[in-house]
Amino acid sequence: MDLLMDNVTVFTHPLIQHKISILRDKRTGTNEFRALIEEIAMLMGFEALRDLPLQDVEVETPIETCMTPMIAGKKMAVVPILRAGLGMVNGILALVPSAKVGHIGLYRDEKTHEPHEYYCKLPSPIEQRTIVVTDPMLATGGSATAAVDFIKQYGGKHIKFMAIIAAPEGLKRLHEAHPDIQIYVGHLDRQLNENAYICPGLGDAGDRIFGTK
Q: What is the pTM of this model?
């Protein structure tokens, strides 16, 4: 795990890198691809959630009563960017089953190329929750930046962003727009091509998760 810049973590764990390599393979089918996305999200989430606040609560064991730490405050929220971000949700929920799940949908204006929100449903009170925004691909950074903008507009404060693959261009844009959020990346790829696809990348994550073209 490398700290690339303030609040940006790029993972070097062998298990994460191995699973990402299988994701990249064009021969990897939908079922395996979907399972790998969940597994990688869970491995990344284990580290990304290491700073969740704790409070001591009283628990009665078979031996005696003791004070022992549990996650404090309102339950965290997982907010996937539709639709590919949905593939990472169950990996996070495996770690924190009590987490609430919101959704944010964006579309890009064909003329201005600016992202617009078409759907946003967030757990309330969002301002009291740790929010994990998920999207497997951080390419241009436009959708990620807009999603965090919208969540902040709704009152979200404690925001983490998780991407399995990122391009340097998208990472730079998101970090510069929101230097206060923690960004976690499974692998930082080389660049975007002329069609804004990440190289070497893994193709369209949404199509590969859901078996569409």
A: 0.91
